[in-house]
Amino acid sequence: MNLVLRRKLPSFSAYLFLIPAPIHHADSAIGDSFAAERRFYSTVLEKKSSPSSSDASKFPEYQLPSVTWGVVQGRKERLVSRVIISDYLKSLGIVPDELADLELPSTVEVMRERVEFLTRLGLSIDDLNAYPLVLGCSVRKNIIPVLGYLEKLGIPRARLGDFVRAYPQALHASIVVELVPVVKCLRGLDVERYDIPYVLQRYPELLAFKPEGTMSTSVAYLVSIGVCPRDIGPMVTQFPFLLGMRVGTTIKPLVEYLISLGINKQILARMLEKRPYILGYDLEETIKPNVDTLLSFGVHRELLPSVIAQFPQIIGLPLKAKLSKQQYFFNLKLRIDPDGFARVVEKMPQIVSLQQNVILKPVEFLRGRAFSDEAIAKMIIKCPQVLACQVGLMKNSYYYFKSEMKRPMEELFGFPEYFTYSLESRIKPRYQKLANKGIRCSLDWLLNCSDKRFEERLQGDYIEADVPGPSFIMGGKLEMPGSQLVSEEEDDSDVEVLYRRTISL
């Protein structure tokens, strides 16, 4: 009979285990009282289950109490409480419409406690209106445990309000089921423990992802294209949004497009390791229009890979406006025509973001040393890196050139790269070695080679003819003019080729 009653009335009989069993005590009155109490509850159940009894709907108060609030209320009491709570929220300026299907607390005092707690945390009425479902979280069962766990991870208490404002859904999360697995996944990706608070504050929606879902597939794809697994942690720290990107719709199309431009996959992997924010650029709205803009301004298509590899940010900038502004400035102030400006962008794409007052400082220095505007324009087109040099260092190099080296000014016209080399670590030591040997050579022969190559030249029985310096072409080997004088073993290694490519970035 008891089993039948349990099947018919689970909402009430489930609580029978809370009723204490009879205790065989020396005082028989105590045992009799427990027995009488159990007989009373059994009688209630028998009446509820008898065929002559009315339907269970006549006793709405005997329903499963709220798991959240732990208070048994009748239907009328719940409706009255909801109306009172709605009026209270309206008086504060909170629209309770989205709370219609949400279980609310039994009294307005509990709701007042939640509102006051959240406002003390730093949330405004507008924040609560933006996500009113946060009012369905219990202060003691949801909010305090989650905030305590976040603070334990290292998020400062003063910034918890900003965190909840950015991602209020975190207060609904289960610490064990949802939050802890995400943190363990970040640690498994080699994100340092002290970086986890920074990652979560920058991308709090990360707590909503499943480690075995989008997070794992995006990481697996990046590793498949050549990204070093040990670099995933620093990449996530710098740009945690990549863990929320879908491979098929976001990452893979972007990677394939950049490879189609001529960028080697291994070079692209190195670019992503150092600048993972590239993955955040929109392919259709930003990257492709910027590539078309570069072509329209005269940049050669075959040099696009080199331009992007040198300055990956260029595919994510408002490029058309920046190029138009700089092109006009170069034409007006530096006497460089649009075709010359395109050559400058090919050799130094960072010029699109260089401030105009910074550009003018080395130009004014050269003008003050009797360089004509035409000569300065040719020097900039040949070596635009001169525009990024510090004027103080240029002065020291110039005075050493005039006083110690005593060379004609025409050599600076032909080799403006002279100003980009360090005076103390390269120019002086090498010139002194040449002076001791009584060797006379061009600036290009003197400076545009490695230290090892320079020593080989000093030990040679003759001076090789001047040839252009090393040039880098994306997707191919590093072309080193005069490399026939170097042993074959130094050029055949694929690792060495890749290393040189990476260094050029």
TrEMBL record:
Transmembrane segments: none
Organism: Zingiber officinale
UniProt name for this protein: Transcription termination factor MTERF4, chloroplastic
An MF annotation (GO) of this entry: nucleic acid binding
InterPro entries given in the database record: MTERF (IPR003690)
A GO CC annotation given for this chain: chloroplast stroma
Keyword Chaperone belongs to the record: no
Keyword terms, alphabetized: Chloroplast, Plastid, Transcription, Transcription regulation, Transcription termination, Transit peptide
A Pfam family this chain is assigned to: mTERF
GO biological process, one term: DNA-templated transcription termination
Family: Belongs to the mTERF family.
Known role: Transcription termination factor required for processing and steady-state levels of plastid transcripts. Required for splicing of the chloroplastic group II intron. Required for the accumulation of 16S and 23S ribosomes.
Principal location listed in the UniProt entry: plastid
Compartments in which it is found: Plastid, Chloroplast stroma
Record bears the keyword Zinc: no
